[in-house]
Design the sequence.
């Protein structure tokens, strides 16, 4: 900060300052860093004047600037997303569900001796609650949360009018879209992680820790169990990232964010319905939600890497397809909002 | 003002790359889907260092033109150049206010400006805090910097939008209806601010339908009508097209008309309690003397110069939304 402040008087001395022309001059404080600043950054920084920067000023900027600027915009985006009360509330709800499930199972488990399979599994080991929570949430609640953030991403800015100012800044269309998508992906992983951590903590408090008995009957160590949870988080997060690509694509087609959000959610629900119709089993593999539950492959012994890989491939295809649609639409769109 | 620009640029030893025009458009046309032509073959030339008034009735294509210049809307045909640079390089040097303020209601003024600063790849993170504080101070929002945008009044919102346009060092300021929603005090402040910015050599492109405002602020102006440019030039040349008239208020209109005609004035029009005529180089005091000498009771005498408004109404016809 001090170096930046130091750069000001140097500029103020050479030209008329645009910003605060009367104040903000600290004569005598011509810093050593001045030359470094001048070459390192764009010229208007040392001279907040109307002057035209030298032609070469953009060259160093091109070397160091874009990456830093990209992260800065992404940081700003994440700050908006994770500080927004609505999004925080969704994360809180998602964190609460595993606690509710855990407490409920604990009550059932202690009162009833004739326990069912899953309940027995969960009651028998603290780690199983995570997988149970995923299978409860991955089909609806988690997609809802991701749809809200992804569907709102571009449409929300367009609806609020802030999109025109972002693009005039200029944020750059491809750059802004990339930031928006990465933001939605990070949120998708945050959703997944929140569920996993909440379930893990609840499970450890309410149920006995120790070696985990898998679906296939074999037993693995607790450390191995934690590793498998991490793999499941990675897989479910990727599933949410694929869904986010759909939300983002829909978001570029409208200025009403609720439309893009609802559209994404309706798509998820329609897919569930189609999957439930036995006659349509043939199209099931092409539907995104079909692959959401494949995270249970980590509960096989050994881990079913094939099922996971297949799912990831589908997610990749969805991201590519809908990412392209979003880009094609957004890069040529007239912003009239 | 052009001289100021070059002087300030001198330490870098670089001449403005685009010569003396901040904005040039050639045959710029936008036809929206549905066939509506918003902007039709616009040839605009905004000199560097000018305060350029962009005038026209509502719906005459002003905002669409500004959106094209900012890269928000793609032209159907024609070319444009801003600061003589490729768009990605030009836009960081352009501060813009387009169709009113738009911010995140749940963020404070400071946080909002930080957000838009983050979107500009040419803005340095290290100086962002200072630049945001400066910009807020310039528009008189320092006291409300920490308040949520949601709680801002309309005037404060407009000010914040101007502050956003002033976030970085700008060579061109594009202000679309900058005084919308401001009280008279705020309007004066904006005018003063524009003059101050222009005095630094920054080119200011102001779209407005408030003619008096443009007349007071601008050095140049262009007039749009239904997507077409009907006139552009300096304010003086635009209003110079019409001649000044003398207006005599008197109960003896007929006699006054005779005197004026006798002095050789053209287009003498007696209208009830007043007579008007083209002044055309006659000295008003002589005319007054002649009237009094002839026994005409002169109650009032004035030289009426055509205002920009008269010019605009003449050029844009009826339906011009003069006072918004």
Sequence:
């Amino acid at each position: 900060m001090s170096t930046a402040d130091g750069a000001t008087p140097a500029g103020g001395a050479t030209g008329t300052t645009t910003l605060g022309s009367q104040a903000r001059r600290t004569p005598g404080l011509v810093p050593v860093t001045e030359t470094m600043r001048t070459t390192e950054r764009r010229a208007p920084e040392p001279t907040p004047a109307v002057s035209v920067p030298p032609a070469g000023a953009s060259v160093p900027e091109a070397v160091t600037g874009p990456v830093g600027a990209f992260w800065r915009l992404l940081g700003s985006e994440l700050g908006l997303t994770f500080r927004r009360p609505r999004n925080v509330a969704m994360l809180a709800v998602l964190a609460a569900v595993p606690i509710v499930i855990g407490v409920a199972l604990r009550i059932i488990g202690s009162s009833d001796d004739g326990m069912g399979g899953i309940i027995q599994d969960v009651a028998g080991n603290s780690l199983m609650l995570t997988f149970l929570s995923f299978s409860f949430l991955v089909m609806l609640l988690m997609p809802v949360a991701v749809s809200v953030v992804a569907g709102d991403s571009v449409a929300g800015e367009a609806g609020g009018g802030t999109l025109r100012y972002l693009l005039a800044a200029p944020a750059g269309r491809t750059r802004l879209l990339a930031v928006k998508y990465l933001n939605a992906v990070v949120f998708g992983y945050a959703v997944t992680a929140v569920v996993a951590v909440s379930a893990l903590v609840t499970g450890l408090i309410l149920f006995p820790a120790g070696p985990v008995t898998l679906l296939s009957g074999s037993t693995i160590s607790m450390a191995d169990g934690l590793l498998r949870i991490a793999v499941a988080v990675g897989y479910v997060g990727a599933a949410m990232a694929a869904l986010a690509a759909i939300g983002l694509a829909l978001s570029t087609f409208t200025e009403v964010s609720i439309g893009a959000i609802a559209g994404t959610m309706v798509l998820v629900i329609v897919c569930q319905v189609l999957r439930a119709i036995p006659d349509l089993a043939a199209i099931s593999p092409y539907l995104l939600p079909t692959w959401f539950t494949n995270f249970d492959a980590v509960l096989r012994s050994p881990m079913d890497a094939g099922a996971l890989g297949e799912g990831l491939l589908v997610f990749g295809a969805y991201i590519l397809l809908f990412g392209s649609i979003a880009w094609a639409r957004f890069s040529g769109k007239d912003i009239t909002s | 003002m052009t001289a100021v620009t070059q002087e300030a640029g001198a330490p870098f030893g670089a001449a403005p790359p685009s010569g003396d025009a901040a904005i040039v458009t050639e045959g710029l046309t936008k036809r929206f889907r549905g066939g509506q032509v918003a902007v039709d073959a616009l040839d605009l030339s905004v000199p560097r260092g000018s305060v350029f008034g962009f005038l026209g009735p509502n719906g005459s294509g002003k905002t669409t033109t500004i959106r094209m210049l900012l890269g928000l809307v793609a032209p159907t045909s024609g070319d444009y150049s801003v600061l003589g640079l490729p768009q990605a390089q030009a836009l960081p040097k352009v501060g813009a206010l387009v169709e009113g303020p738009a911010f995140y209601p749940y963020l404070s003024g400071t946080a909002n400006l930080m957000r838009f600063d983050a979107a500009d790849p040419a803005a340095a993170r290290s100086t962002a805090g200072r630049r945001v504080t400066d910009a807020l101070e310039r528009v008189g929002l320092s006291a409300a910097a920490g308040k949520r945008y949601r709680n801002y009044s309309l005037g404060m919102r407009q000010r914040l939008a101007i502050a956003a346009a002033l976030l970085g060092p700008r060579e061109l300021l594009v202000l679309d209806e900058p005084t919308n929603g401001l009280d008279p005090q705020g309007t004066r402040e904006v005018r003063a601010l524009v003059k101050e910015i222009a005095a630094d050599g920054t080119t200011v492109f102001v779209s407005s339908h408030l003619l008096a405002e443009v007349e007071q602020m601008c050095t140049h102006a262009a007039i749009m009508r239904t997507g077409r440019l009907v006139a552009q030039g300096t304010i003086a040349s635009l209003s110079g097209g019409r001649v000044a008239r003398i207006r005599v208020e008197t109960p003896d209109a007929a006699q006054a008309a005779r005197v004026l005609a006798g002095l050789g004035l053209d287009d003498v029009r007696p209208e009830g309690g007043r007579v008007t005529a083209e002044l055309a180089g006659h000295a008003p005091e002589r005319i007054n003397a002649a009237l009094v000498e002839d026994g005409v009771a002169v109650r009032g005498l004035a030289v009426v110069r055509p205002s920009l408004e008269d010019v605009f109404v003449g050029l844009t016809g009826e339906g011009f939304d003069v006072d918004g």
In short: The first helix of chain A runs from residue 2 to 14. Residues 1-64 of chain A have pLDDT under 50 and may be disordered.
